[in-house]
């Protein structure tokens, strides 16, 4: 196995930092969406709003896991840098490997969350299409 240098984990360090920023922005948009859905649900207990709430609950759980594994990956990158600095090359390689696995897990949860988000958008599109059909039927009668 080739020895790691301090440069190697810094590449992952910067990538994970940007990913965590994107995850945080996603979380903040979900927080706003939760407030909007709450108000909407209080006015109208529709099945569509209920479906969106359930969908959002899954997405929030996945976002929490994405952030958890992303932060763990970032911490392990820092630990790798420290281990390289103090001369524990073999241990640093294993810690860096775990950091990479955690990043893969985080990104996998992100892909899963994107799929669920797409389902959420489909619910909205179907609702709009159904409303349009109802309006057309009203005009025909």
Describe this structure in words.
This protein has one domain. It is mostly helical and 141 residues long. It is built from three helices and no strands.
Give a short synopsis of this structure.
The chain has 141 residues and is an all-alpha fold.
Give a count of the beta strands, DSSP E runs of length 2 or more: 0
Helix content bin: over 70%
Question: How many structural domains in the coordinates?
Answer: 1
pLDDT < 50 stretches: none
For the CA atoms, what is the radius of gyration? 22 Å
**Beta-strand residue fraction:** under 5%
How far is it from the N-terminal to the C-terminal residue, by CA?
A: 76 Å
Largest sheet: none
Please state the average pLDDT score.
82
Sum up the overall morphology in one term: rod-shaped
Along the chain, the helix and strand elements come as HHH
Helix- and strand-based class?
mainly alpha
Multimer state:
single chain
The helix tally amounts to 3
């Amino acid at each position: 196995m080739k020895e790691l240098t301090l440069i190697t984990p810094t590449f992952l360090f910067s990538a994970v930092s940007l990913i965590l920023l994107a995850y945080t922005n996603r979380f903040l948009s979900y927080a706003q969406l939760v407030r909007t859905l709450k108000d909407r649900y209080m006015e109208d207990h529709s099945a569509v709003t209920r479906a969106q709430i359930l969908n959002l609950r899954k997405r929030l759980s996945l976002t929490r896991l994405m952030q958890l594994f992303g932060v763990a990956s970032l911490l392990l990158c820092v630990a790798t840098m420290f281990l390289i600095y103090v001369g524990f090359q073999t241990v640093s390689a294993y810690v860096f490997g775990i950091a990479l696995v955690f990043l893969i897990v985080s990104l996998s949860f992100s892909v899963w969350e994107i799929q669920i988000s797409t389902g959420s958008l489909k619910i909205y599109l179907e609702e709009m299409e159904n409303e349009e059909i109802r309006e057309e039927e009203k005009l025909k009668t």
